[in-house]
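Ops channel
N.P.: pipeline sanity check, posting one input/output pair.
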């Protein structure tokens, strides 16, 4: 969770490195996902820090409008540092769901509440392929890879596994 300016800089740098970007700033045209992640982190910072009510509202509004524009609905404080969203379009994360650091998310991913009313928890270094659906009160362990179009509705607690299929099962 981002609580200080140093934390904000650390998260922004980790996100930049996760996206394999060599530049220090995004280009004026392009780099839309990177700009989204910068606004997401600034929104997190101003939501977590006392004071700055105007900046809190400003970044929350910017985050909302850019989310709608790009189709990436990731709530503040959902993921740790090193988040990498590979493509825009169709990414939906429940506000109560959580992910660790260095998570990679492709387009068309849904992480949401299941029929039990609970939300998933993702570990560190989780890779989620395009079109994957993760829902329910489950846990995905550190280093797991979720295959494209997988439907994950049960926990996978062994680290470093590759899971795929409908319903998902360990394939490697």
């Amino acid at each position: 969770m981002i609580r200080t300016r140093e934390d904000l800089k650390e998260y922004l740098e980790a996100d930049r490195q996760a996206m394999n970007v060599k530049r220090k700033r995004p280009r004026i045209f392009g780099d839309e996902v990177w700009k989204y992640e910068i606004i997401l982190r600034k929104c997190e910072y101003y939501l977590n820090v006392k004071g700055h009510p105007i900046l809190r509202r400003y970044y929350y509004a910017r985050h909302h409008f850019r989310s709608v524009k790009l189709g990436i609905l990731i709530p503040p404080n959902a993921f740790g540092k090193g988040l990498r969203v590979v493509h825009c379009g169709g990414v939906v994360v429940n506000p109560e769901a959580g992910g660790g650091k260095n998570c990679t998310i492709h387009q068309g991913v849904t992480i949401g509440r299941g029929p039990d009313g609970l939300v998933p928890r993702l570990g560190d270094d989780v890779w989620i392929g395009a079109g994957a659906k993760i829902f329910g009160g489950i846990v995905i362990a550190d280093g797991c890879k979720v295959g494209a179009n997988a439907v994950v509705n049960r926990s996978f607690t062994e680290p470093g596994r590759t899971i795929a299929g409908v319903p998902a099962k360990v394939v490697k």
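N.P.: looks fine end to end. Helices lie at 5-18, 32-48, 53-70.
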